[in-house]
Design a protein that fits this description.
The complex is a heterodimer of chains A (about 400) and B (about 425). With about 400 residues, chain A is α/β, with parallel strands linked by helices. Chain A has ten helices and 13 strands. In chain A, strands 10-9-8-11-12-13 form a six-stranded mixed sheet, with helices on both faces. A two-stranded antiparallel ribbon of chain A has the order 2-5. A two-stranded antiparallel ribbon of chain A has the order 6-7. With about 425 residues, chain B is an alpha/beta fold. The chains are: A alpha/beta (about 400), B alpha/beta (about 425). At the A-B interface, strand 1, helix 1, strand 3, strand 4 and helix 3 of A face helix 1, strand 1, helix 2, helix 3 and helix 6 of B.
């Protein structure tokens, strides 16, 4: 009785569908987990290559398992000299960190995906677009850019990257050695296979040679707690990277305010404690004035985002509305974000008869939007409300 | 790239089969399919099943394996064979001929084990391939059903997978639990009437601890829709099918290595294949320091059994044992010493050896080994009671190992999704009762 032989003729890439589904899940999880990453990162001065670890929830599969800290294990010693009571330090090798995943063991609810800032922006923003509003003059100047962008498995011959291809083969060879399927001393030729080939990838980018400037305005008065600032920071981070990904050049101005506006650097913006009351209109006036003076709003795309907890002196409300109306006229987009952590706050009484968001509510249109954030998970939804309206 | 054609494979296979037959092996015929490494990875993700329902977790498993392979952390397995009649096995095109010969000889061992070991008696190897194909069709139809859709189907599979190892360990047929309950009630009717058994006792659900959690939920959950029950049955069926492989991993691999090695010596391979064959063999059965390589332990033990009790005893062991009973019966102090087995505490930064295989330590080491072999690395959970529609699960604590609570909590959440009501798990953590 012999066996039967046949060439495998099922669908060659049978797991493609399930892989796609898995990837969708990761992307979704990244979007949901984004508030956890962003708040830790500084907003500007990163070059897009920096790696960010994103904790991804829920992609893990759970079963009943024993805890890592309970019970002993048994193993064979090979030729090693094992003695009772002896201790070994675990070498780094023991940590089976997989590329792109945290090497952590059981009990961890997250598994981490490492992406670069560039990839992250792509993940997050590929479906979102800037509101199609009036076009600024400079926008019409387009430029085409050829950029090298990584390597691909397929390509045309002239773009074959010999170096990358050779690296792949060496990797595979080392893998085979370790797995024992190839013996380097045997003198056998370890040839290239199709899968080793790597081609340089060229991407054509059409870019609007345009500039954007962003005014981040934040209330730093006594009522803005650390927690609120933390939420604001996450939100600003998203906004900055989103806008940056759409423009050639992006300038940021940080304007902190209590009763007075102050132009500060990023660090001071988020960390500077302040006390005292809140007046919104002077800060908005300041933005109007600076935008006019430093960036010509007719050729620059001006964005203004204002985060506050909604407090404002009643007497200033009318002025704030007027200033906001003018800002709306000047900006490509003007967003107001009210942050109020859900926990009890001694100052919430002020909002009862209407914080800024209520006063602003009726002004909303496609150039001016108002969102409220009460917890971390709202950050992404709020962001989508600003720029995802057409989804 | 490869130094062989189908003709070579057929020729060597004929000789392998002749030798195996001579030794009294009795196996399911084998169908070998050749594939490239990419297809191999694909097949591995689905446990080698020619058709299998789709689920994102298999996509993930593919990605993980590909990443590991490409980073050089693991080689691909030499063989992938499924317990079916005929057996289906995959041969990677990239492998050289000596490796294919080794794999074919190895697969004969596996196939013989599938056919004869008691643990596999109820796996219905004749129908597993059509069963899986059918399951795939059914799940696909639920996904395409506009009133159900992929999100809902995935949620049920996610939850059912969380419980998929929670089926009885011992070989048994998949029972209809409703009928089982009825039979029990008929049987105990007398006791009820004569007052030996109280009404509560008689009507308790389940009457006895039920280890088949998926089956129990699938058949007793009240608000479950038919398609949900069907998916649970599919996953339950697969769990029953795979449990014997979990329980006999060491024996199964040991038996296959034992035979490919024996066959090698009678194959009369030309030198150019013989030496690489031996090298590959040594790679496969080498000890992994600090853990247990099932190929190593199984191969070692079958050789020792032959040495001590003769080949007949090997065949007997192949028929009746599973890993735990196999090791319990055959692993001696001498073996533990020779294998240099030890037990250790796996601390976060250090490994601390607790016992070695000397006069006083070897029994301890063996016991620890028994606790991690076969299905024993999976905690045992059973359905204890249903109290006002609250499902109460019990963890059978082995006295040493606590559950990983963060995982258990997730599993209980998944169980609640299926049961559609509250679920409780009672276990012990740090020697104190614990409830989730």
């Amino acid at each position: 009785m012999g066996s039967v032989f046949s060439h495998h003729n099922t669908n060659a890439d049978r797991s493609a569908g399930d892989r796609r589904r898995h990837k969708q899940k990761i992307e979704k999880a990244i979007k949901e987990g984004v508030h956890d990453i962003v708040a830790e990162e500084s907003i500007i001065g990163q070059d897009g290559k920096k790696k960010i670890r994103i904790p991804v929830k829920g992609i893990k599969e759970y079963r009943f398992v024993y805890g890592s800290n309970s019970g002993q294990k048994a193993g064979s010693g090979g030729d090693a000299d094992v003695q009772k009571g002896k201790k070994f330090a675990k070498g780094k090798k023991k940590r089976k960190g997989k590329p792109g995943r945290a090497g952590n063991e059981k009990g961890e609810e997250y598994y981490e995906v490492e992406v670069t800032l560039e990839e992250l922006t792509e993940y997050l923003f590929k479906d979102l677009n800037l509101p199609e509003l009036e076009k600024k003059r400079m926008k019409e100047i387009m430029s085409q850019e050829y950029r090298r962008k990584g390597y691909r498995n397929e390509g045309i011959r002239p773009r074959l990257s010999k170096k990358e291809t050779a690296k792949r083969r060496i990797k595979r060879k080392k893998a085979a050695e370790r797995a024992g399927t190839y013996d380097p001393e045997s003198g056998e030729d370890f040839g290239y296979i199709e899968n080793d080939l790597r081609y340089k990838h060229i991407k054509v980018d059409t870019k609007y040679a345009t500039n954007a400037c962003i005014f981040f305005v934040m209330d730093v008065s006594g009522s803005m707690s650390r927690e609120k600032k933390y939420l604001a920071r996450s939100f600003f981070f998203l906004l900055y990277h989103f806008i940056r990904s759409k423009y050639e050049k992006t300038e940021i101005v940080f304007v902190a305010h209590d009763t007075q506006p102050y132009e500060v650097d990023e660090d001071k913006f988020f960390n500077r404690g302040s006390s005292g009351g809140t007046l919104v209109s002077p800060a908005l006036e300041y933005v109007l004035e600076q935008a006019e003076k430093r960036f010509n709003p007719r050729s620059w795309n001006v964005y203004t985002f204002h985060c506050s907890d909604g407090d404002n002196w009643m007497s200033d409300m009318q002025k704030a509305v007027e200033a906001s109306n003018r800002l709306k006229e000047m900006c490509q987009f003007y967003g107001y974000c009210e942050i109020e952590p859900s926990q009890n706050d001694s100052l919430t009484w002020m909002n009862e008869d209407g914080g800024l968001s209520k006063v602003y509510g009726w002004m909303e249109d496609e150039k001016f939007k108002v969102v409220r954030i009460t917890k971390k998970n709202d950050v992404w939804d709020a962001f989508k409300k600003f720029f995802g309206g057409k989804l | 790239m490869s130094d062989w054609g189908l003709k070579d494979l057929t020729a060597w296979d004929d000789r392998i089969c002749a030798i195996a037959k001579n030794h009294g092996l009795d196996w399911y015929p084998i169908t070998y399919e050749t594939c490239d490494y990419f297809e191999m990875l694909g097949n591995m993700s689905y446990h080698g099943m020619p058709t299998h329902y789709g689920h994102w977790s298999y996509g993930k498993s593919f990605e993980v394996q590909r990443q590991q392979y490409q980073a050089g952390m693991t080689g691909l397995p030499y063989e992938l064979i499924i317990n079916s009649n005929p057996c289906i096995s995959y041969l990677m095109k990239e492998n050289p001929l000596h490796l294919q010969i080794l794999i074919m000889a190895h697969c004969v061992g596996h196939s013989d084990f599938f056919k004869n070991n008691r643990s596999f008696a109820f796996t219905r190897a004749d129908t597993v391939v059509p069963r899986m194909r059918n399951a795939k069709k059914r799940i696909q139809s639920y996904i395409e059903d506009p009133s159900i859709g992929i999100e809902a189907v995935e949620a049920v599979i996610d939850s059912a997978h969380a419980l998929s190892y929670q089926v009885p360990r011992f070989p048994c047929e998949i029972e209809d639990l409703l009928e089982k309950r009825k039979a029990w009630m008929d049987f105990h009717k007398e006791n009820l009437d004569s007052g030996k058994m109280s009404e509560d006792q008689y009507n308790k659900l389940p009457q006895e601890p039920e280890y088949d959690i998926l089956g129990f939920i699938g058949q007793h959950a009240r608000k479950m829709k038919d398609w949900e029950r069907d998916i649970i049955e599919i996953i339950r069926d697969e769990a029953y099918y795979f449990m014997p492989q979990i329980r006999t991993k060491t024996m199964n691999e040991g038996w296959a290595c034992f035979w490919h090695y024996k066959i090698l010596h009678e194959l009369d391979l030309p030198q150019e294949y013989h030496i690489p064959f031996l090298k590959s063999h040594n790679q496969v059965v080498r000890p992994h320091v600090g853990s247990m390589n099932p190929y190593h332990l199984g191969f070692y033990l079958f050789n020792k059994i032959e040495e001590r009790h003769g080949i007949e005893e090997c065949f007997l062991a192949r028929d009746v044992h599973h890993d735990e009973s196999f090791i319990r019966q055959y692993l001696t102090q001498e073996d533990c010493e020779e294998l240099n087995l030890f037990s250790f505490n796996d601390n976060p930064d250090t490994i601390e050896i607790t016992e070695v295989s000397d006069e006083e330590g070897w029994k301890h080491v063996k016991n620890i080994l028994l606790g991690q072999i076969g299905g024993n690395s999976i905690p045992r959970i059973y359905v204890d009671d249903v109290d006002e529609d609250v499902l109460i699960l019990h963890h059978e604590h082995d006295g040493a190992r606590d559950l990983e609570i963060s995982h258990a909590t997730k599993v209980i959440q998944h169980t609640m999704e299926l049961w559609k009501n509250e679920v409780k798990l009672i276990t012990i953590v740090d020697d104190a009762p614990y409830e989730i």
